[in-house]
Amino acid sequence: MNKKLYVGNLLYEVTDEDLKDLFSQAGNVVSAAIIRFHDTGRSKGFGFVEMETEEGAQKAIETLNEKDFKGRKMLVSEARPPKPRGNFGDRPQRNFDN
Hints:
By secondary structure, the chain is α+β, with helices and mostly antiparallel strands. It contains two helices and six strands, in the order βαββαβββ.
């Protein structure tokens, strides 16, 4: 089963291919993606890597977490599921049907 990892504290210049190459040292990489701002396309400084196996993911965490990558210490951990997007707190929802 594939295992998704969070990779943070990246330089803005790091590419998807850079992540894929780096993480392939730990195992087979299914996908690697830098998260970018929609309007500018600029990197947000973090991304996600999907490893093919649990073992590869664990090896990546053990060997790459807090490792210097292009001058910055990367943070590598198991990705958490995204938080559900709700109605933005306790604000009442508007009804625009009227």
